[in-house]
Task: structure prediction
Amino acid sequence: MGGGGFCMEPDNPALDDYILGLARSPLPKVCLLPTASGDGEAQIRQFHATFGARACEPMHIALFRLGIHPVPLRETLLAQDVIYVGGGSMLGLLAVWRALGLDAILRECWQAGVVLAGLSAGAMCWFEWGISSSLGAPAPAPGLGLLPGSLSVHCDGEPARLPVFRHAVRGGTVPPGWAADDGVGLLFRGSALQDVVSSRPRARALRVEPGADAPVAARRLTVREQFGDPPDIAEYRRMRLSR
Amino acid sequence: MEPGNPLLDSYVLGLCRRKRPRVCFIPSASGDADHYVVRFYRHFHGGICEPSHISLFRRDCGPGKVREHLLAQDIIYVGGGSILSLLGVWRAHGIDADLFAAWRAGVVMCGVSAGSLCWFASGLTAYHHDARPYRGLGFLPYSNAVHYEEESSRRPAYQAALLDGSLPAGYAASDGAALHFVGTDLHRVVLSRREARAYRVETVGDEVVELPLEATYLGDRPPIALVA
Result:
């Protein structure tokens, strides 16, 4: 996601519901990795507020607090249906993941069919390159490279990124890729782009190549319209809420 | 920053000649936890120093020019948390080189827990109870162990790592004990709790030798002179 979901638009669950709809289970296990925010309390709280009211089993792993709350990382992450990476510092995110061996674990999860999702830093991290402002001004930063190419986020919300991205792609430092507005989600299966969706009107994505940009139409998601609850899920949700 | 016990904080501030030393807090090991930053400002308030902090995860706050800011400090105080994350994040941001420059320029480096471990050549991580050696910044060419008497698994793990050669000889400290180095030489050991202990730990043959270090409890006030 170029931006959006519970972190940025807590009153608009369209993208978060879309992500849940991609999971292989009707009651998916969803794990937040809030690493990029430094395991920020606000992000964790909002995640549980959003996903706690949905048909899923939400949890989070705070890597900075493993000393106090140890979690077997590989086993826990491989058991998830969705791994959702919050926004923040892309440089910090990848540094911590690499220090703790999460880069390898997440690759394994991806190969095992776990849905990998995220916004901002949590979206760019899956690509070969992103445009990070962790050091202040936007600059190219390498990602995990599960997905080929590059991604730049907050295209409309933080307009300083796109020129840096275009320049890096034209100069060949960064491979061609996508720029996404806030509220836009790109769905990849394997490494192929399969769907472009949006939680907001007029939000869009761009394909950025060395020669020129090409706009990519985003399909507008409407909550419930697309993902009405099946009866068993609705019942589960009512039970959960009444507890 | 021990609750209700400012002895070690005062000791560190007392190492500087300036009346209100410039103290920069680096809470990276905690992921820049808000409550930790607040605690720093509560202990190191404007009345006794010029406090600041550097938040690498929240770039909207803190000074923009990290290197210049670090070099302008009297004291750099590194908070506790995850040592692996701390070192990873610092290296990704190039802060390791900035800290080295600051240390060479005479800035007092201090810290607690992970903020102590980082200055040494190596030590053991303790998350998961699966202690592994890591490579620290290496300003001090020794190993370091913290919470040495508080966490039961640390001591045997540290000693085993010394014996199998994965760690060099070093210094171990319990909570409330501070190792004060000048250059790379141990200068003195000071305590904020009377029962706290620090040790030089090394191997002799196939045995680990733990040498208790002479230490000064900072809470003993100078005797009051009675004037008749």
